[in-house]
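Deliverable D2.4 — example input (structure tokens):
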């Protein structure tokens, strides 16, 4: 029996090993899949380097990785290696940069971890360099290339690493960045941005606590702006598209003469849409500020402009207050007097503003200001150098009116163009559940259509979902086709055109969030300009701007067409079920209806606002879009949509799992364990191995038993 016991022990040990091996292998494979890094950015210029992104589900230690500018680690080309642990968390990236060069947008981003070579155990060989005119970059894990990128005059010829026959050529002074985590090993995965542009990224979780004072143009006369500037004791940083108001300049001049230690930096657009004459008219006054000690610069100069327009309007006071407006600092907008009847006058624009007290936000915006104010990128010059022969004109401060403006506690999120303004616009449109109001000066290009990439199309979708969606435009969008036909006549959005005061606003209210902004709804404003906006999370402030919006809306909305709503539809239907869809139209009248059920079949026309339709699911089910087009006698039509689901009974109404009860305690549920425990589960998961092994073991036992009987028989003999 000792031999039998020994055999059983051996066989059981073998069984355990065999069972464990596949399990260990599976775990290892899973870990390998989660251990995923990719090259995310490549910067060949000042503070050159790369960033790496972790697209997996687990943290990754960079000690196993190298970055090289040659596919052969044994070559004389350089590399960056990691001798200490640097962890890249899931769904995040870190920047690896050289310590040489002037800090730039590649390394100056809020919330991004930057590691410089020579620190944290990061070793850079002396021959590692990313050539400005072109190079290839490789990410190694041990000796295996896991990702690659090339740009400029260098093209990776290995199709397993770079499947495209082109790279980014003639893109001087640019930083390369991925669109996302999708990887085709080609230039289509990447885009580039101009060196010196900030890249703050889309982060709706970035919020600062603040005390916020909202105000309106022209109602306020810009008095909150005057008050904020007047409060400056240490520093005043201004970035305004147009600064032509001599009274506010007079106040700044007075502040400088009274306090020579006051640091005043001013940045204006050098080539505004109004032309060079607009800057030339401002130059004499601004030169007086320079003479008093201010540093006044112009951006957008030369052939290497970072932005098509620096269209921002903000100021930072004493590093604890930021003023953000939709309006330029012009004579009409900053007249310094309360306007009690804005709908009858012609002075000043309709715009929104906010005075934001927050040291964190001031620090954030100061970093943005310093980046744009820098002369290192070749597109910023001194005002005095551009107007060497202009005679200065000393401005005179005539004072400004007094008024009280309510302040509220809030959280605020910074928004910038060309960094993230489009993403934030889409985010806050989708954020709305009850109300969505927008007052916009411009609606240009493809955004006049109802496409999914247009804010207008996004709003139309929210209107279909039952959100109260309203739009106000300035006279620049005052045409029948855009407002009457394309918006009111084809969507549930209610839109109007306000003629007085002139709408220069770019404000949005989305439920309890108000956005004060310089961002027009144009591609250039979203993607090519420097713009500044701020999202303010406050029910009180959202109500403040909503009330102002509704006052304007009631002045201009006069659409007398018809409205459509899908009033009878469920979220899901079973296959074989006959559904009844109904629309309500106001005002009542004769209309024609065209029903598209999203099932791939031809739309069905009716003369009545109701239709029966038999649901037939494809497979287990699918989501579909019901589209109803309603046309009146004049040929005007409105299209509305609703999403619904068609499936089998099991997908539409899945059965609730039964919870076993404890027999000793009726009514009490027990843990839904199979009773096997970990060991039992191990056996259960590996029965395909265990069954044949059990057969072998039993056979061995039988063989051992027969052998024992023979030995016993021999002894008896």
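Example output (designed residues):
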């Amino acid at each position: 029996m000792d031999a039998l016991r020994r055999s059983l022990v051996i066989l059981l040990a073998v069984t355990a090993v065999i069972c464990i091996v596949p399990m260990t292998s599976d775990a290892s494979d899973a870990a390998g899949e989660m251990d995923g890094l990719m090259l995310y950015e490549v910067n060949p210029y000042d503070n050159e380097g790369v960033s790496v992104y972790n697209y997996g589900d687990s943290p990754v230690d960079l000690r196993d990785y190298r970055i090289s500018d040659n596919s052969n680690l044994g070559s004389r080309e350089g590399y960056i290696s990691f001798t200490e642990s640097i962890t890249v968390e899931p769904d995040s990236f870190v920047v690896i940069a050289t310590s040489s060069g002037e800090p730039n947008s590649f390394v100056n981003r809020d919330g991004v971890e930057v590691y410089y070579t020579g620190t944290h155990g990061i070793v850079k060989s002396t021959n590692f360099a990313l050539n400005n005119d072109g190079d290839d970059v490789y990410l190694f894990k041990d000796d295996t290339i896991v990702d690659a990128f090339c740009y400029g005059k260098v093209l990776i010829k290995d199709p397993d690493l770079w499947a495209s026959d082109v790279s980014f050529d003639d893109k001087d002074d640019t930083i390369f960045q991925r669109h996302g985590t999708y990887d085709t090993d080609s230039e289509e995965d990447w885009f580039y941005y101009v060196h010196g542009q900030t890249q703050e990224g889309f982060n709706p979780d970035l919020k600062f606590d603040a005390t916020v004072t909202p105000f309106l143009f022209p109602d306020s006369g810009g008095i909150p702006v005057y008050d904020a500037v007047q409060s400056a004791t240490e520093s005043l940083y201004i970035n305004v598209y147009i600064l032509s108001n001599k009274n506010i300049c007079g106040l700044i001049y007075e502040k400088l003469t009274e306090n020579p230690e006051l640091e005043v930096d001013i940045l204006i657009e050098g080539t505004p849409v109004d032309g060079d004459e607009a800057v030339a008219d401002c130059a004499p006054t601004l030169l007086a500020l320079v003479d008093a000690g201010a540093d006044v610069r112009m951006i957008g100069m030369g052939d290497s402009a970072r932005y098509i327009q620096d269209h921002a309007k903000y100021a930072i006071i004493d590093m604890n207050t930021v003023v953000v407006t939709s309006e330029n600092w012009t004579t009409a907008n900053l007249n310094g007097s309360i306007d009690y009847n804005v709908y009858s006058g012609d002075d000043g624009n309709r715009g929104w503003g906010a005075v934001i007290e927050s040291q964190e936000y001031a620090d954030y915006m100061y970093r943005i200001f310093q980046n744009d104010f820098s002369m290192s990128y070749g597109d910023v010059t001194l005002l005095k150098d551009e107007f060497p022969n202009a005679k200065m004109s000393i401005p005179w401060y005539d004072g400004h009116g007094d008024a009280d403006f309510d302040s509220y506690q809030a959280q605020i999120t910074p928004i910038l163009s060309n960094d993230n303004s489009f993403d934030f616009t889409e985010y806050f449109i989708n954020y709305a559940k009850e109300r969505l109001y927008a007052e916009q000066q411009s609606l240009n290009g493809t955004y006049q259509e109802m496409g999914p990439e247009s804010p207008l199309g996004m709003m139309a979708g929210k209107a279909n979902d039952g959100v109260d969606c309203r739009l106000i435009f300035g006279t620049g969008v005052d045409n029948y086709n855009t407002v009457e036909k394309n918006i009111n006549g084809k969507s549930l959005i209610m839109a109007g055109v306000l003629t007085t005061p002139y709408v220069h606003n770019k404000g949005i209210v989305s439920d309890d969030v108000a956005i004060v902004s310089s961002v027009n709804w144009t591609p250039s404003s979203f993607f090519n300009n420097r713009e500044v906006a701020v999202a303010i999370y406050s029910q009180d402030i959202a109500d403040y701007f909503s009330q102002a919006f509704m006052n304007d809306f009631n002045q201009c909305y006069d659409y007398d067409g018809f409205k459509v709503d899908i009033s009878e539809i469920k979220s899901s239907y079973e296959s074989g079920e006959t559904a009844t869809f109904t629309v309500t139209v106001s005002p009542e009248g004769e209309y024609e209806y065209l029903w598209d059920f999203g099932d791939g079949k031809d739309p069905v026309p009716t003369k009545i606002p109701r239709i029966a339709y038999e649901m037939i699911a494809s497979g287990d089910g699918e989501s579909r879009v019901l589209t109803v087009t309603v046309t009146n006698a004049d040929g005007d039509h409105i299209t509305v949509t609703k999403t619904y689901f068609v499936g089998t009974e099991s997908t539409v109404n899945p059965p609730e799992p039964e919870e076993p009860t404890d027999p000793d305690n009726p009514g009490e549920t027990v843990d839904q364990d199979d009773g096997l425990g970990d060991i039992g589960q191990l056996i259960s998961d590996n029965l395909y191995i265990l069954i044949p092994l059990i057969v072998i073991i039993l056979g061995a036992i039988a063989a051992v038993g027969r052998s024992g009987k023979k030995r016993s028989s021999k002894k008896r003999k």
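Residues 416-555 form a domain with the Endonuclease; Chain A fold (CATH 3.30.870.10).
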